[in-house]
Design brief:
Strand order of the largest sheet: 2-1-5-8-7
Largest sheet: 5 strands, mixed
Strand content: 15-25%
Distance between the termini: 55 Å
Number of strands: 11
Oligomer: single chain
Structural class: alpha+beta
Number of domains: 2
Shape: elongated
Radius of gyration: 27 Å
Order of helices and strands: EEEEHEEEEEEEHHHH
Length: about 200
C-alpha cells in the first residue's frame, strides 16, 4: 500500500494496481502503476511513499472497537497507525432512544448482548450439540427400553459440568483481556477455559 503526499500531507492512499488521479483539472495529477517500477528515491520525488504499518494500538476486534486508520507523514515516512481502542462491553447494554451505539449507525431502544452473554451462548450451544448426539439413549430409556449405558451417562454429565464450569469462568472475568486470556493455550497445549470431554467407548 502506498500513500500520495502533497505539501507534506497525506492526501490519499493507493494500492498501486490501477492508475490514480488526484485533484481536479487543471491541477490533476495521474499516478501510473509503472511508478512502482522506479527506485524508492524516484517514487518519493513524485510524492509516492510506501506505507509503514504500526499496529501497536490495534487490538483483537472480537474484544475491542478499533479506531479508523490514521495516516501521518513525518521525517520522510508515511505511517499507518490506530488510536486507542475501546473495550467492548462485558455486560449487556440497553440503549435508549437517542443513544449512539458504538461501532454501528443504529440508534434506538436496543439491548446489545455483552461479551459474557455471547461467549456463554456459544458454550451452551456447543454443549447442546454434544448432548443431542446421545439424546436418543435417554429417550429410549424413558420409553422403557434399554437403560442408558454407563459411559454415555458419564459423558453427558461431564458435558453439562464442563459447560457450567466454562460459563462460571466467563462470569468471573472483570475485563475483556481476562476473557480473551481464557482461550489462550500455553506451551503444554492447555488453556484456562479447559476442554470439552470426549466420549469413552
Amino acid at each position: 500500500m502506498w500513500a500520495i503526499v502533497q505539501n507534506n500531507e497525506v492526501v490519499t492512499t493507493w494500492k498501486g494496481t490501477t492508475p490514480l488521479t488526484v485533484g481536479s483539472d487543471p491541477d490533476a495529477i495521474t499516478y501510473s502503476p509503472l511508478i512502482l517500477n522506479q527506485t524508492v528515491e524516484e517514487q518519493e520525488a513524485q510524492g509516492v511513499y510506501q506505507i509503514v504499518f504500526d499496529g501497536t494500538n490495534f487490538k483483537n476486534e472480537n474484544y475491542y472497537f478499533n479506531t479508523a486508520e490514521i495516516f501521518t507523514f513525518a521525517d520522510g515516512v508515511v505511517t499507518s497507525s490506530f488510536g486507542t481502542a475501546t473495550a467492548r462491553s462485558l455486560d449487556d447494554i440497553l440503549y435508549i432512544e437517542g443513544d449512539d451505539i458504538p461501532g454501528t449507525n443504529v440508534v434506538g431502544d436496543i439491548k446489545t448482548p455483552g461479551l459474557k452473554r455471547v461467549h456463554k451462548n456459544s458454550i451452551n450451544a456447543t454443549a447442546q450439540n454434544a448432548l443431542s448426539q446421545t439424546d436418543w439413549y435417554t429417550l429410549r430409556a424413558a420409553d422403557g427400553g434399554t437403560a442408558v449405558p454407563a459411559n454415555i451417562a458419564t459423558y453427558r454429565t461431564n458435558v453439562r459440568n464442563t459447560s457450567n464450569t466454562m460459563c462460571g469462568l466467563i462470569d468471573a472475568v472483570t475485563t475483556v483481556d481476562e476473557l480473551a486470556a481464557l482461550y489462550v493455550y500455553d506451551a503444554e497445549g492447555n488453556r484456562p477455559l479447559g476442554e470439552w470431554p470426549t466420549l469413552e467407548e
